[in-house]
Amino acid sequence: MLPAPFPLPAKAKDYLRIGANHDAAMIGVNMRWQWQSAQSGAGNPLMRCTASTRECQTAKIFASSEVAHVQAEHQGVWTAEIEQYAADNLDSRWSTFASSADQGTTWSPVPLPVSCTGPVSCSLHPESGTHYFLLASTYHQDAKPDFTTQVLETQDGGKSWVDALPHTRLNVGQSLVHVAGRTIIYVEGEHPALIHAIVLPYAPERDSVVATLPPDGRILQSIQDDGRTGYLLHVPDNETEPGTLFAVKRDAISAIRKQPGLIARFRATPGLLLIDTVDKTDIAKSAADFRHTLHTSTDHGATWRDYVLPDALSNSVYTVVGGRIWLATPTAVYYLDPN
Fold it and tell me: Which residues, in sequence order, are CB contacts of 4 under 8 Å at separation 6+?
């Protein structure tokens, strides 16, 4: 545990943003939830919490209109989504992206090839310190499909970009698109949903349908990746039925786990698979939240271990890096190494 008090009148998931590598967690704090802070125009801190020193320090104070959500670290370069806010609103209006080579003290904007405002929303997917994919999704009001997504790629930190799928837009939003190395996996349609796989460089004839998902339910969040296999979690509409964790490869899909309970989130990294379930019959009173259990696997889903979160961690945000789970609460930052 690393003491890092930033209690505000909201749940942690509303105002804390977490990203990490193995030794350090970067916590972006949205101080706008504190009325006096928002009125005064005080900035929003980015905290750097380090396991080796067991200390949390302020890395940078962002403007009152900006909140940093650190995404990843590659070869000493951190990347972050910078959420942009209007003065009178707690909802982010749009996002920009930035990189840092000095542990988050200074940040440089990542040049983008498109404007990520209005009907266009973007997400950045770092593959290395300078190699990024940008997913730019356009919302089409009163039209089908609702969203189309352009996939762009840079090898030089954003100085130049190319269209990874020339003359092609995916008929889905960015949350259902996953880029892993030279493979793009995406989920199209619903009732039933089709899982597609594209191997770069793009050739239309290699856009193959890997599998068809059950006709009811939804995909939880996006496809995750552990470095060799994509994973997605299908949650039935009926909450009493278990969810199904699928392993997705370029030409095959297999169900590897049936997960009972109300599923909240899941993560996949090269060292860990994690499914988060919520028990609505058990309230962690000190956190004013339902009890969470983390179901983890360190052997690609062959065996699993459960961690019931104590009251102090029920109101937390977390991320997974390698085999380590980082959790941030309003009063402290924790890390867990499942085995």
Answer: 27, 47, 49, 56, 328, 331, 332, 333
